Amino acid sequence: MTLELARWQFAAVTVFHFFFVPMTIGLGVLVAVMQTLALVRHDQTWDRLSRFFGRIFLISLAVGVVSGIVLEFQFGMNWSAYSVFVGNIFGAPLAIEGLLAFFLESTFIGLWVFGRERLSPRLHLATIWIVSIGTILSAFFILAANAWMQHPVGYTVEDDQAVLTNFGALLTNSTLWASFAHTVVAALATGAALTLGISIWRARRATEGVERDAFRRAAVLTCGVLLVAVVLSAVSGDLQARLMDVQQPMKMAAAEALYNTQNGASFSLLTIGNLSGQPIFQIRVPHLLSLIADLDWNGTVIGINQMQAAEVAKYGPGNYAPILWLTYWSFRAMVGAGILMIVVGAWGIWLSWRKKLLSSRWFLRAALAGIALPIIANASGWIFTEAGRQPWIVYGLMETAKGVSTVPTADVAAALAGFVAVYSVLAVLAIVLVARAAHRPLDRVDEAAAGEGPPAPTRLVY
Amino acid sequence: MATYTGLSALWFSLIGLLWAGYFFLEGFDFGVGMVSPLVSRDDTDRRLCLNAVGPVWDGNEVWLLVAGGATFAAFPLWYASLFSGAYLALFLVLLALIVRGVSFEFRGKFDSPGWRRTWDVANFAGSLVAALIWGVAFTNFAHGLPLSAAGYTGGLLGLLHPLAVLGGLAALAVFAFHGSVFLTLKTSGALHERARSTARFAGMAAVVLLAATIAGVAAGGRPWAGAEGALPGAVPLTLGVVGVLLLAGAVLLVGRGREALAFGATGGAILLSVGAVWGLMYPMVIPASSGAVVPGVAGVTLALAASHPYTLTVMTIVAAIFTPLVLLYQGWTYWVFRQRLVRPLDASVSGPVAGGG
Q1: Where residue B354 falls among pLDDT bands split at 50, 70, 90?
Q2: Contact A62 B104 (CB under 8 A)
Q3: Alpha carbon distance A187, A28 (integer Å)
């Protein structure tokens, strides 16, 4: 029971944190780009936009930061056997993440928020870029730790502990670079989709021309960013799929719930019925799974039954398949949301080229609904990659069931209930506050120009 | 199992320094959070208190995350046993840090007294609970934990023995003192005067409570004192006593208006107190008050918990390169925001200005 509750707790705190992380990374870059445009082009409009979206960025950042603290301690609290086993390896990127990334983002965000009047415009611009670099570095190091769980490299096992033998291998892990690329572009898409939805909505309801023009420009920018980011996320996702086919074939098979090895395997868009091999209704795209896995029309995709037999032979008796309905549907939710994002981005660019970006009521609806798409894709992608690795906590080395702490079940349940309760309130507050920030008028030009002249003695930010 | 090396002793010290830095820095944010209701007379005062730590509190909190990460990497067994053993205590700290952390950003977002009061309470309670539990935890480290072969299994209540509660109260008072001295440095006018008188009261309480905690710990015995490498009890005791003297000096300095010196002294007392705890623990990472856990060893030793030398070497190189850089830019932040906050003349009419400009 402790094991199940510990898993639910980890899933809850991680997925919640990961709602805000990609949003923060993506918005950070976009706000930095807007502030750069303002400075380089001496353009008040971009300055006002960067302040407007900067507020939303800070709400997302605040929730991301506090929910991130929890994760630093989750491993020791709930997964102490795992922590002892992997600490030599997994702890290092975590510590380095703190030293290189957290210090950078937390210190420079203070400078960005409070330093507008104290720093020169160039220096102030540098602070938001440094914050962005910090958030991206943070993604790199936490993914370095996670990639090692997916595909362990550069280690030996001594006295029941995994021991690091090659730090370079940890940082050059192919799994790391593929998932880092995928995560960063997905984060950009997340920020872009939110900015696009808000911008289209604000531009259409703007009463004055200046505001309408400002949000239209933001919409055009983020439409482009969205489309490029989602296409790149498909490319990097494909790279990941091919690595997965070699490194974790069971996960690849589980993505399709493919029971038996096939050449030229097809991909089902949806299945009605059960996933244990007897679907009632399916829509299938021939050869697509082989293309995803091998980039080959007739490539071989190993089935779950064959992988199960192979892993039993290698690791002994046990069930080595993940929860198939979860991997099957989370994979489809991710890919499906991605395809819809491409549609939204391409449609927006088409409309913008035809100078009709703001006149289509249907596009407004699509752009507003589009805010949710990357959030769905991020959560389901993360659930897929973690659930698809099961029953392993470290692939091939340690099973999840063996990593759990010996903590009283009641304590784990209490903490789970507490985190869920607090996070539910935080989620509602975050949504309400972002919605409120999205309703605010753009700063007046004289406010935006407040940085000129002698600094005011005290500007109360909080 | 990993071999005992000088590297593990180095990392034990570095983790102590990270905790000391964390308590020095976040100690004053906690203190400001705790004394804000005492020194504030209106909404503007409360905002001045929040803004006094506004640019720096987040960076201060990262010291905790790096201490946690470094413990994980350098001493996996320490990280795993401590945080699973003190499960509910750590859970409460995390909740406190969550509600406190968002209170900064959220408080000004609605112009409603009820909303603002909610986040004032969150900031106050979050600071108080976190400070109290850290004090309880560090007193337990100094006194040792009742360990069995299965580790620490006493739960939350097992941590809350009278001496530990005394230590928790001492931490509350020390941080409240440290925070109010910080406020005297950052404020002016009537708020400054109130921060000063609060500092003197908190300071006197801090001196008494810290001295009592040190006496209680010193009377406790230290069953692991015979372990190879353990420091003579006089070393940590001296650190602790000098810490108390610094606190007493800080009370006098605040009375004379020497606020910067007083802040140095309260900070010094915090650093020395963590140093004393670390000096008491060595060569254990989790000392056992209950005596030998396995024959002849009263606790979890550094040597048992330490990572392989390769990991420690990598970490040492990374830390040697990046720590100076971190100290440099964090120090620069304090320089940029060195001015005192001045109460705005039109404070009564200016609504909250949201972050980011």
Answers
A1: very low
A2: yes
A3: 10
